[in-house]
Amino acid sequence: MLTETDLRLWPTLARFDAVYHGHFKCARRRLIDYPNLWGYARDIMTWKGVAETFDEAVIRAAYYGEDRDLNPFGIVEMAPALDWTAPHDRGRLGPATVAARAGRQIEVNPTTLHAVEVSARTRCPNSKALLRTDTR
What we know:
2 domains, two-stranded antiparallel ribbon, Glutathione S-transferase Yfyf (Class Pi), Chain A, domain 2, 3 helices, 4 strands, alpha+beta, elongated
């Protein structure tokens, strides 16, 4: 389930390898060294509208170029090669849901943000699980 807290954490995760790990030296490992967190960050990146908020070059230039206390010469270290489009394998955890008012959970298609209708008549072959069908 995607919550407001997830969306507030995402910028920190997105900036971690690009800036926090090298510039602030705040951890021994990078985000990509934590498979579950790395998959989680890539999953959130696939949600509609999220990727458009992330510009690694601008983020790196701002942190490295403007923080003269930690980086007096404005040297920008090489960026790690990150593949934000690699499969995140988070589908194994269940359908994408978002938290709604009054604690309700709504299943959505992350790329369109449209609600997904679960039909009692549409069942997966050889399974008791229901197939999800996009309502829009």
